[in-house]
Predict the 3D structure of the following.
Amino acid sequence: MLNEMNSLIHFQDVNFSYPNGTIALKEINLKINKGESIAVMGQNGAGKTTLVRMLNGLLRPTSGRVLIEGEDIITSTIGLLSKKVGIIFQNPMHQLFSNTVAEEIKFSLKSLDLSKEEVEEKTNTILNEYGFERYADRSPMNLSGGESKKLAIASIMCRDPDILVFDEPTLGQDANEIKIFLDMLEKESKKKKTIIMVTHNVEFAFEHVPRVVLMTNGRILADGPTNRLLTNETLVNRSSLILPQVFRLKLGLKTLGLEVPDNIIQKVDMVKFLSNYFETEKKEVN
């Protein structure tokens, strides 16, 4: 499916078992190109988080290989991998441990071999960019849920890694916070960053992510275009997900005799289609 020469990440026959004997990944083969945005989806325990934690060396395959830019992660350190891969965990407090917001950013920048002056300058830039200038001396423990997630993102983004991994990025976020996140994704995509999102949010993936990898019981069930896989009722059910709202509405309208064009997949397009349809119906009645 993907051009070998452009493959930035390559899982080759990867299996993984935890020390207690739990088998988390089975025969994973997956290629991800530079600059791609993908969603990894499936039920709890499908192996999604285990999969992405291999990218920065937090976990290593029991068998098989994980290659990043052609290099096996087994030959690299977590420190070196963290320069290439940034992971924002589902619970931001799992990666925030400094006494203040400013110290959190400074600690993250230490891996870049910057001078003290450069660290100070970049820290101030990041604090301003993410709206933390007033909270520089505040403990991360005293931030709101949305603010702590934003700080976790800032602490990773300040290193400017080529691969960005988000574990449930929309969980607990309000509409404004999700918009800010989408704006950031658009900005990073333009910089050809590779973006991987572990998510249960079908609506978010369907509208904003072009490619999806569906997992179940430690295996990849399907890999392909989001608008094709997330409208396949069999695949969606096997992944313990639900069909997108727009597609469910299309099915409902079809039972009423109204065919919606295949290219209507976004909510805004569905609203326009229905508005035009009812306007036409109204004119015909009059």
The first helix runs from residue 48 to 53. Residues 34-53+77-241 form a domain with the Rossmann fold fold (CATH 3.40.50.300). The chain has a mean pLDDT of 91.
